[in-house]
Automatic annotation (TrEMBL):
Stored Gene3D superfamilies: Haem-degrading domain
Family affiliation: Belongs to the UPF0303 family.
Organism whose genome encodes this protein: Acinetobacter albensis
InterPro entries named among the record's database cross-references: PduO/GlcC-like (IPR005624), PduO/GlcC-like_sf (IPR038084), YBR137W-like (IPR010371)
HAMAP family in UniProt: UPF0303
TM stretches of this protein: none
Protein name as catalogued: UPF0303 protein GA0116959_101255
Length: 165
């Protein structure tokens, strides 16, 4: 984690917002992430959901039950805190606390590991999440960000985390 990461994570959520979001967009995003995983032979699982409804779920070769559990926990964290799970992890690290100490939540239902990102619709707010698991948490998070940046036509450089962890 770099000192600039938290400000970039906040900016990602401010910039990577949709005018509208529906099932077709979820399918397009999920397919893009899946194809990027396929291109690089990544063992990832992807779930895109509105908080009450799964819209896209796909897994690549090499994914285990644990990866599916991680996306569930990442989605739960996004829904509860209305921010990316990676941002939550950085905020907790700044306080030198974990999710159990700070919020009294069970780690079998929530996580502050990277790879869960809020679906934010302008003038509405957070309506769901995109979750990826199978890579180190920074890479899970960045895979989502890269996809959203390209899909929404935003400036990649200003939203990119540094390569150091």
């Amino acid at each position: 984690m770099t000192t600039n990461d938290l400000s970039i994570l906040v900016r990602q959520e401010e910039i990577l917002q949709f005018d509208v979001f529906n099932e077709d967009i979820a399918w397009q995003l999920g397919t893009i992430i899946y194809e990027r995983g396929k291109l690089d032979s990544l063992p990832i699982v992807i779930e895109i959901k509105k908080f009450d409804q799964s819209l896209f779920l796909a897994a690549r070769s090499g994914v285990t039950f644990d990866h599916h559990d991680w996306i569930r926990r990442k989605g739960n964290s996004v829904q509860r805190f209305l921010r990316s799970s990676y941002r939550l992890g950085h905020e907790l690290a700044a306080e030198k606390l974990d999710i159990t100490q700070r919020f009294h939540l069970f780690t079998h239902d929530y996580t502050s590991a990277g790879g869960g990102f809020p679906i934010i619709v302008k003038n509405i707010g957070v309506i769901g999440s995109i979750a990826v698991s199978g890579l180190p948490e920074r890479q899970d998070h960045q895979l989502i960000i890269d996809t959203l940046v390209d899909y929404l036509g935003k400036d990649k450089k200003s939203l990119q985390l540094s390569v150091t962890s």
